[in-house]
């Protein structure tokens, strides 16, 4: 099931195409928490739909009746209650907030949501709609943003705060400001907006105009997740509860749900079993948050790719993460009023703003604060860095990363039986190496494997820092080679040598020729095999000083 037309050309990915219903409506009881619908979200404490559904601002919602946004959508439904303890997420403070009406703050606001299966972001270009997000009613959008409906076109009539938008593609992440736009994917109510745009909706109330906080005119989507990955439909629920400091724009305090439930604000929590209770997953300091004082930051959006190793393993830098590695990918944003806003980020040295997609502090970086992974401007949002003269940037309220079509298939894995010294890697990786014993290196491909429009990027991870050769062949082979396995043979072409930094590298980058050009893929396409051969100078397994990743196969089209 897909909600959006997915191609690798951003200009044609402008609307939503609804597929057949893939999931039945599932009920939640006090004794059992079932797998959530594919599209899930939460709304803030001011949202008037809370009285209609009915729901609290700590509940996980989904479009009714089947978890799929529709045109003229009926009111949304609760699929995972926030509590009380023993029910749903099991938020400890939930019981004291049952029955509170919209506009009455109570400490249970669910600020961010993930199931740990979000798309892994690799180095290199990403296609449109890889990043999906929501904003609040005060966002205005980046001037000149193309491809309406978008934040810029919908905000003036209050039709943006309950919507989800998709980016228009990125030349890469962790590279600085490259302004781009966004386009609407899911509407709040699924009815025509003031601009005439119509796209399927959540079943919420619109418009939500910026103005006096006492006017409860429309809803605000506060967290969002679309489960579509190869390991979708997970049972664990990861989320954040808000801090207690006041919003400097409205003057109202946040609900303080985190402290009320015994957790510092800006924490990422996880409910592992139905009914909870939630436990700490990622505390604020490893994320570079609350470093200026307890409760001074608020984590406002979350995208997480859990590596299936118990607990949170913070990544030392971008792209060193995901299944098959010892690190988790955790992307997030911070709420307006967080003390970290304006501080220099650790990756680029830029002042952090509310709309940035952030990563934990980069080892040896510019500061101890989070790194800016995707600047807000690259998502089509306005910031005090470039556009807005006032004190506040557009806020990123919710975030999800979406899986794209598979570029390659993996083979030739480092099992104990196959590796020369029994130095097995994790499933899907090559043989273990001196830096990552029992893990090994991993090779993946992303992008469009089309000879006439090649955007393929080969990325190797969990390798020792040093030189690595990316190469292509025409046949699959299997044999011991150095400390690992040779997986590629036939007519071999050396694509290029890279140098691993933070244990990862990508081909092509910069002025490198595209893979199809360097690999001399015929115009009619064809099947080729790829591997990365890297230096591992430490005495580890054999007398050799090298090892290899797994192999991958790419089928090229014209």
Describe the overall structure.
By secondary structure, the chain is mostly beta strands. It has two domains: 1-7 and 35-405, no CATH class; 409-556, Immunoglobulin-like (Sandwich). Helices cover 2% and strands 25% of the residues. The protein has three helices and 27 strands. It has helices at 151-154, 257-260, 515-518, and strands at residues 39-43, 60-62, 77-80, 110-114, 131-135, 164-167, 182-186, 221-226, 237-241, 268-271, 279-282, 299-305, 329-334, 357-359, 371-374, 396-401, 409-411, 442-446, 457-461, 467-473, 475-481, 484-489, 493-499, 505-507, 526-535, 546-548, 551-556. Strands 17, 20, 23, 25, 26 and 27 form a six-stranded antiparallel beta sheet that branches. A four-stranded antiparallel beta sheet has the order 4-9-10-11. A four-stranded antiparallel beta sheet has the order 7-6-5-16, with no helix packed on it. Strand 10 and strand 11 form a beta hairpin. It starts with 38 loop residues before the first strand and ends with a strand. 58% of the residues are buried. The model is unreliable at 1-36 (pLDDT under 50).
């Amino acid at each position: 099931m897909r909600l959006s037309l997915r191609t690798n050309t951003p200009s044609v990915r402008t609307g939503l195409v609804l597929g057949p219903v893939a999931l039945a409506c599932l009920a939640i009881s006090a004794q059992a928490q079932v797998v959530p619908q594919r599209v899930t979200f939460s709304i803030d404490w001011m949202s008037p739909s809370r009285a209609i559904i009915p729901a609290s601002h700590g509940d996980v919602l989904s479009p009714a009746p089947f978890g799929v946004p529709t045109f003229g959508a009926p009111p949304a439904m609760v699929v995972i209650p926030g509590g009380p303890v023993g029910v749903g997420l099991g938020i400890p403070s939930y019981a004291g907030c049952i029955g509170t009406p919209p506009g009455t703050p109570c400490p249970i606001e669910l600020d961010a949501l993930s199931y740990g299966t979000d798309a892994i972001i690799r180095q290199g270009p990403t296609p449109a709609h890889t990043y999906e997000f929501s904003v609040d009613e005060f966002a205005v959008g980046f001037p000149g943003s193309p491809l309406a409906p978008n934040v810029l076109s919908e905000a003036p009539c209050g039709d943006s705060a309950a919507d989800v938008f998709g980016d228009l593609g990125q030349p890469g992440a962790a590279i600085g400001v490259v302004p781009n736009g966004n386009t609407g994917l899911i509407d709040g109510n699924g009815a025509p907006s003031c601009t005439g745009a119509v796209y399927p909706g959540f079943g919420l109330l619109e418009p939500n105009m910026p103005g006096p906080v006492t006017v409860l005119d429309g809803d605000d989507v506060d967290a969002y997740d679309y489960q579509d990955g190869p390991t979708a439909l997970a049972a664990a629920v990861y989320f954040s509860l808000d801090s207690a400091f006041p919003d400097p724009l409205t003057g109202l305090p946040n609900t303080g749900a985190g402290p009320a439930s015994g957790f510092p604000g800006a924490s990422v929590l996880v409910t592992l079993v139905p009914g909870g209770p939630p436990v700490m997953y990622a505390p604020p300091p490893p994320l570079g948050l609350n470093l200026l004082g307890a409760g001074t930051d608020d984590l406002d959006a979350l995208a997480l790719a859990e590596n299936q190793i118990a607990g949170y393993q913070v990544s030392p830098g971008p792209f060193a993460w995901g299944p098959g590695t010892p690190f988790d990918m955790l992307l997030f944003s911070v709420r307006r009023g967080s003390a970290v806003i304006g501080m220099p980020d650790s990756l680029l040295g830029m002042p952090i703003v509310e709309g940035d997609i952030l990563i934990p502090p980069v080892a040896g970086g510019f500061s101890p604060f989070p790194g800016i992974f995707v600047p807000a401007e690259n998502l089509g949002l306005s910031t005090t860095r470039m556009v807005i003269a006032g004190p506040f940037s557009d806020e990123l309220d919710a975030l999800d990363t979406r899986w794209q079509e598979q570029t390659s298939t993996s083979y030739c894995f480092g099992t104990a039986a196959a590796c020369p010294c029994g130095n097995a890697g994790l499933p899907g990786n090559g043989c273990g190496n001196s830096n990552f014993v029992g893990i090994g290196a991993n090779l993946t491909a992303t992008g469009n494997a089309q000879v006439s429009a090649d955007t393929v990027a080969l990325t190797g991870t969990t390798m020792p820092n040093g030189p690595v050769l990316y190469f292509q062949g025409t046949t699959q082979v299997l044999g011991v080679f150095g400390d690992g396995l040779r997986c590629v043979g036939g007519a071999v072409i050396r694509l290029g040598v890279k140098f691993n930094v933070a244990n990862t590298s990508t081909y092509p980058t910069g002025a490198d020729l595209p893979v199809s050009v360097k690999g001399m893929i015929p115009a009619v396409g064809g099947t080729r095999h790829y591997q990365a051969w890297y230096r591992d100078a430490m005495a580890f397994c054999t007398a050799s000083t090298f090892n290899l990743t797994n192999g991958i196969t790419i089928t090229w089209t014209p």
